[in-house]
Specification:
The chain has 242 residues and is of the alpha/beta class. The protein has 7 helices and 10 strands. β2, α2 (45-53) and β3 form a beta-alpha-beta unit. α1 packs across α2 (45-53). It comes from Edaphobacter acidisoli. GO terms for molecular function: glucosamine-6-phosphate deaminase activity; identical protein binding.
């Protein structure tokens, strides 16, 4: 695992964005288009803001996906990850195409449809984070690191739901949905490159576990160590227990 530690959260975002932008430019030289999966979380904000400012990226040749979405929120709810990503990046640059997870209707049908879109061509890059409980996307522990499904409906554990409150996304735990659609761990790790931003003191334990614990579904983020091209970006706070 390629771990890079910045002095501040803002510097972490700039470092990650510079590396992601360099990878995008390189791929766009040799490929007609690039397919990227984005995480929707406050931990990604600094990186996304810096990435948008990076020059020389032909966004019109980039297709965007996201990795999870709540089930049960109204279509216009601000907490929906698709809407968060639209505000953070999808509506700020001119992508070739943006595929949002539609979780308002038949969730199982939405999973099948999204899996089909993902399977149309290889995924080049995933821009992700790690939850306070070590989750990747909404794959809470104990997660299946060998999951045969590409996209699935999952229940959210209390630690995951509390994180959404602590991040300021919901007023109380009761407001946080208990189910979601998520890309599975094998789907995320199937991409060619992973760039993982994990800032903040509340992620210290998860970062320590990710780096030092045995690879297992008890801490899904440990699975990142299986990927040959995964860069992890930390700040001083999140790396304090390493």
């Amino acid at each position: 695992m390629d771990i890079r530690i910045a002095s501040t959260r803002q510097e972490m975002g700039r470092q990650a964005a510079a590396d992601i932008a360099a990878e995008l430019r390189e791929r766009l030289v040799r490929q007609s288009d690039v397919r990227v999966i984005f995480a929707a979380a406050p931990s990604q904000q600094e990186m996304l803001d810096a990435l948008i400012r990076e020059p020389g990226i032909d966004w019109a040749r980039i297709t965007a996906f996201h990795m999870d979405e709540y089930i049960g929120l109204p279509a216009g709810a601000a907490q929906r990850f698709g809407l968060w990503l639209r505000a953070a990046i999808f509506d700020r640059v001119a992508f070739k195409r943006v595929h949002l997870i539609e979780a308002s209707g038949d969730a199982e049908a939405a999973c099948r449809g999204y899996a089909k879109l993902l399977a149309e061509a290889p995924i080049d890059m995933v821009l992700l984070g790690v939850g306070v409980n070590g989750h990747l996307a909404f794959n809470d522990p104990p997660a299946d690191l060998e999951d045969a499904e590409e996209v699935k409906v999952v229940g959210l554990d209390e630690a995951c739901r509390q994180q959404q409150v602590d991040d300021g996304c919901f007023a109380s735990l009761d407001d946080v949905p208990q189910r979601a659609i998520t890309l599975t761990v094998p789907t995320l790790l199937g991409a060619n490159r992973l760039f993982c931003c994990v800032p903040g003191a509340r992620k210290q334990v998860a970062v320590r576990r990710m780096v030092h614990e045995e690879i297992s579904g008890a801490c899904p983020a440990t699975a990142l160590r299986r990927h040959p091209r995964c860069a992890v970006y930390l700040d001083r706070d999140s790396s304090a227990m390493l």
